[in-house]
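Have a think about this chain, tokens included, and walk me through the fold.
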Amino acid sequence: MAQLYQFFRRNRPESQPFPEQSGDKSQQLDRVWTIAEDLSGNIWFGTVEEGVWRYDGKNMTNFTVKDGLSSNTIWSIFVDNAGILWFGTEEGGVCKYDGNVFVNFTKNGAM
């Protein structure tokens, strides 16, 4: 997925530059598995082992298990009609994100 990152860097509007990543973060978008756009126009990148990234047109923000995700591997992203984000994770079930809090669901119910 490094090609996708480079595509966004090459094709960005000049008024909204794609942010540079520093240090260890530069490799974290190399393994993007899924991409979605939320109702506010943010772009979400689900990665293998690096959580989910949100691009708001100016900044990249990374969310991981430290922030409440049940897994750092995100296989799918779905945005429902209410704007709630749903993340399908590896081994961690499904995570719901309302913009403030992650709620994790497993086959046994909410965690």
The domain at 2-17+27-110 is CATH 2.40.10 (Thrombin, subunit H). The radius of gyration is 14 Å. Strands lie at 32-37, 43-47, 52-55, 60-63, 74-79, 85-89, 94-97, 102-106, 109-110. The first helix runs from residue 2 to 10.
